[in-house]
Design a protein that fits this description.
The protein is built from 2 helices and no strands. By secondary structure, the protein is mainly α. It has one domain. The radius of gyration is 14 Å and the shape is elongated.
């Protein structure tokens, strides 16, 4: 699986743009870890990927909170 930045030409102009871009990045990372969890068989790697995925979910929630307040 190849990771490609969707935002490489995006230049955020406002705080809302920055939060939107940050949310996109966190959601992309979450999906990446989720996809990797589906294909790995290593228990140690599964644990690490699960922890990283959970961390991204926390970031997503924080950003969404900032976007609504």
């Amino acid at each position: 699986m190849k990771y490609e930045r969707k935002d490489k030409y995006t230049k955020p102009q406002t705080p809302a743009d920055i939060l939107d871009l940050a949310l996109q990045k966190e959601e992309s990372s979450y999906k990446f870890y989720e996809d990797m969890l589906k294909i790995t068989t290593s228990p140690i790697l599964k644990k690490l990927l699960s922890e990283l995925k959970d961390a991204e979910l926390g970031h997503i929630e924080k950003i969404k909170h900032k976007m609504t307040h």
